[in-house]
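User: Hi! I'm working on a homework problem where we have to compare a predicted structure to a textbook description. Could you give me the structure for the chain below?
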Amino acid sequence: MVNLEELSLKRNNMKRTETTFTDISGKRYQVANINEENSESNRIELNRTSGFVIDTKPDDLSHKIEIIIPQSILNNNNNNYESINLYIGSQDAAFNKLDLQLKNIKSILNVGIGINNLFTKENSDINDGFIINYCNVEIFDDVNFNIIEKFDKCFEFIDSNIGGVENNGILVHCNAGVSRSATILISYLMKKLKIPLSLSLEILKSSRPQCKPNQGFLKQLEIFEKELLF
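Assistant: Happy to help. Predicted structure tokens:
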């Protein structure tokens, strides 16, 4: 049986806690008591952050999405590929010239925030003529961000640049290579290869264990799956 007096005593002895919030713009503020009204007067503003998850353990390799394409998809394939050279990585992978060359990555889909494209035509003189075809789609790693509305543009770029005679590869990266890029690639597998969400997520994690779409993105992927009528 619950002892109300004991619970009341424990509650009175509890220490006041401070909760830190970060909004989509990167503004950080602290609330002294989460049970109190979250008003402007109850907030303590902190230093701003970048507005995205910062990767504290940089890695500079692109990870291939290992998948066997179903024969039914190959039979109705408009891209003429027998394998898909899709890669995922962090922003560091997008700067690794040697790795990009070794993996025949000719195109990069940049879905991060504030990340420069290094191997552009304008920079070819300082990169020994090495040129990458880029597409920038800015996506915030925020649970309230509508990522579904970005899918079509991402799919179009991937379809336009993947495969070919040389079976060129495409790297999809964000800042940390964890949430945004994973969500885009999962949605692509769902849409183009008819692979259910759960299996698509498993495929991404087997290629790059760090992959973890935020909860808001996962909810949107569930909605997207229902729209695809699996």
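For your comparison, note the following. The first strand starts at residue 19 and ends at 22. Residues 63-228 form a domain with the Protein-Tyrosine Phosphatase; Chain A fold (CATH 3.90.190.10). Good luck with the assignment!
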